[in-house]
């Protein structure tokens, strides 16, 4: 349990730092991230990219997702089905959003469920090796494991503010490293292997 305790401490510290970013500055940094992401991300039209709609003080990916859709990506966002599982439903312009619990909104059950080729992954902390700390529920770990079991290997790109970086993230056997991290200062590529 020492690793979980260390993760919880790092999570709390980095989320406090993220919460301290003034709203106007968060908006500006989200727009900077969108510019970097649109310049750096390469994909074929029809590629399925999962993003997320912001909760609390998260980076706002809506400008980036709109730009990626404009370049031909199919955009989806996570939907919490129960205490164990998320799926990714397609987000199309004008589709109604429903409350999905934990402060999240997403397309309703009529939206198509998609398996992402590229996952833009929310996180609370990350390190220079590409290790991440999520929010503690394990939803993304289980979703990635489910995709791997289906033989799919989505590209994993963490989404964070620069202030969420820590010196070292303690790891557990189920942890899966990121291939890259997108922040307000650009796209960083990590030397990690897909799990």
UniProtKB/TrEMBL annotation:
Q: Does the keyword Coiled coil apply?
A: no
Give binding positions for substrate: 53, 58
Question: What are the binding positions for ATP in this chain?
Answer: 7-11, 132-140
Q: Identify the keywords attached in UniProt to this record, alphabetized.
A: ATP-binding, Magnesium, Metal-binding, Nucleotide-binding
Q: Which domain of life is it from?
A: Bacteria
Choose any GO biological process term that the UniProt entry carries and state it: tetrahydrofolate interconversion
Q: GO: which molecular function terms? A: 5-formyltetrahydrofolate cyclo-ligase activity; ATP binding; metal ion binding
> Which EC numbers does the record give?
6.3.3.2
Q: Which family does it belong to?
A: Belongs to the 5-formyltetrahydrofolate cyclo-ligase family.
- Protein name (record): 5-formyltetrahydrofolate cyclo-ligase
Origin organism is Pseudorhizobium pelagicum
């Amino acid at each position: 349990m020492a690793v979980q305790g260390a993760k919880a401490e790092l999570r709390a510290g980095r989320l406090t730092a993220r919460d301290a970013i003034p709203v106007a500055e968060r908006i500006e940094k989200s727009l900077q991230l969108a510019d970097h992401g649109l310049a750096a991300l390469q994909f074929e039209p029809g590629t399925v990219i999962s993003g997320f709609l912001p909760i609390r003080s998260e980076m706002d990916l809506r400008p980036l997702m709109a730009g990626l859709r404009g370049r031909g990506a199919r955009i989806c966002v996570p939907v919490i089905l129960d205490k164990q599982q998320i799926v990714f439903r397609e987000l199309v312009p004008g589709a109604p959003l429903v409350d999905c619990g934990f402060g999240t909104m997403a397309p309703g059950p009529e939206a198509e469920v998609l398996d992402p080729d590229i996952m833009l992954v929310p996180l609370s902390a990350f390190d220079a090796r590409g290790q991440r700390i999520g929010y503690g529920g394990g939803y993304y770990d289980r979703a990635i494991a489910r995709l791997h079991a289906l033989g799919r290997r989505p590209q994993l790109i963490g989404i964070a503010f620069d202030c969420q970086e820590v010196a070292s993230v303690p790891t557990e056997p189920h942890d899966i490293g990121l291939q890259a991290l997108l922040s307000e200062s650009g796209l960083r590529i990590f030397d990690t292997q897909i799990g």
